[in-house]
Amino acid sequence: MTENQPFSQYRTKVQPGWIDCNGHMNVPYYVLAFDQATDSFFDHVGVDESYRQETNCSIFVAETHVNYLRELHEGAPLYVTTRLLDLNEKRVHLFHQMFHEDAGYLAASTDIIIVHVDLGRRRSVDWGEMPGKKLQQIHAAHGKLTWPDKAGRQIGIKSG
Prior knowledge:
With 160 residues, this protein is α+β, with helices and mostly antiparallel strands. 25% of the residues lie in helices and 34% in strands. The protein is built from 3 helices and 6 strands, in the order βααβββββα. A hairpin with a 5-residue loop joins β4 and β5 (106-118). The radius of gyration is 16 Å and the shape is globular. The mean pLDDT is 94.
């Protein structure tokens, strides 16, 4: 990750079982890919299996909003970029964008609010020094990037 780029380590291909009756990737598999990209991002900042074992803390998704923009078909290679848009002592706001790796088009995006949780108490807790410091560094770097068009949108149907 550099200051002028979002984090990107998650890559996969659309699996045959991910295809629905319309011949394209079905809704839950977009969410699955975004969830795996979230895990990849948090592994990068140190919130991984060893962190969970040592601290008894983990992350929970509190809210998500997905934009389905273009179809993906069986076998399509895809990658997901991740931006850390906002951060406080217990939560982060991530924004993922899913791209068709060969064709280069944006297929979907999602906003995700993640909460840091003490698994014993099942309550939100501060990030603490680690991974808090790493998250702050990424937030500062990503804050220099242009705000994504689809980020932070509300859902609704416009009348008229």
